[in-house]
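Hey team,

Filing this mostly as a record. A colleague (T.K.) asked me to run one chain through the structure pipeline before their review meeting, and I want the input and output archived in the tracker in case anyone asks later how it was produced. No errors, nothing strange. Just documentation.

Input sequence:
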Amino acid sequence: MAAPQRGFKFNLAIGIYVLCAAIVVGFAGSNFYVLNAAGDVANQVQFNAEANLVSKEVKLQLQGLASDQAEISFLDETVFELYRREIDLEYVQEEIAEDSWLEHEFEHVIIVDEQGNPQITIFRDQLMEPRDGLENIVANFDLIQRARTKYFANRKVRGKGFVPIGDPVWSNNAIYAADYRMVEGQLGMAVAQAIVPDILEVLPDGNPKILFIFRPLNKFAFGQVREQLGLSRFSIVAQKDANPELDQMVIGGVGSAKIAAVWEATKPSAHIWEKALPFLAGLLALITVGLGFIGYRYSKIVTRIQVSEERNRFMAEHDALTGLPNRLQFDNELDNIIAKAELNRCAIICTDLDKFKDVNDTYGHQAGDAVIKTVAQRIANVVGDKGMAARVGGDEFIILLRDGLDEESVMMLCDNIIETVCEEVVFDNGSAEVGASIGVAWWPDDALTAKSVIRSADQALYRAKELGRGQTVRALAPNETPERRHNTDRRKSI
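Output structure:
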């Protein structure tokens, strides 16, 4: 008997394993995603905290520089000397130039007049030509303008003039403007601050004089800031020169000359992964083993169920002994042909074995089964792809022919069936010979329905047996007598 196809069952079992694997991968992927997302959030929070720390520190450095500058710009004596018609250059040299360089390391000091022109230019502790500071004033005029704006916003009237409100650096009324800048190729801090009195003097109405100073950054300053921040590889550089592997934040500059603070940000994600990965790996291994076991057991159960269902479906339409189609499948096939008009014509052949009872009586039912199986295979081989051979009873077979339907071809096929059935059948306890009788009918020539055409072929089979067995008898056509039909029937002796 032919076995049911099992490819679908094996695919289903594989599908169960694939599903289990997908669950494991999905679990791993979701946990890795969550850990990665948590790590990214932690990294961002840490970066924001460090960026906030950097922002406060760089502002504090600028404020500290402005405080140093205020020792010169926030002073009655400076106001008195610089607002005079004739400026005392000796005072400028001793009290401004030397103090700025020796005490505070201001490399560039420029006093800007009310019209925005350099009135006094100092490089380190040397007085230069005023015009030597023009380039720096132009490049940093935004700071000078901001300092003026803050002065006007934070002044008050005193007597016949004006004075600043509160401390010009440390109060909420600060009047300085500061930034990180590139000056003559050097990176440093620049501060512009109105020159204002601290106690007695007052300023006339109009633009104040502005003290602009620049102090380059140096390794010592970097070291101090780095130590205060506690950040790895911290530095302040031109943004275009920043290491792309480091985190950065713009802290100053104008136009394309931006200044950035860079550092190697702490990555909490590495600590998260270090702590979570061993636990996740263990849990993943446990889930993998568990799902693997469940998948194995379930696939076995499903496979057995599928084998059983497939076998049941097969047995519902096949003969258990021979594996040939049974009467149900035969009837369905014939009904489809007639109901759906799949063919214009077909032939029905009913055959019954002769002398089969003698085999059962002589050798037993086991030998009889062997004979039936052998004969079934022989009939199926003769029919081949021309039609369907089915077993419908103990020693009864029925054939549905789709091809070679002319009478001569059908009768010749019936002769071949009788001839091959008559060949000796060998089995375990001996051998036996049986014969075959055949009745044949055509649809729609002999009958119009499935039942009637089968009945016509079956009646022809009975006549073949009555006429002496071992022969083929054609069904009677309408108004045809058995005597007339007898002349066209064939006989094969056994």
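Quick notes for T.K.: Confidence is low (pLDDT under 50) at residues 1-9, 490-494. The first strand starts at residue 108 and ends at 112.
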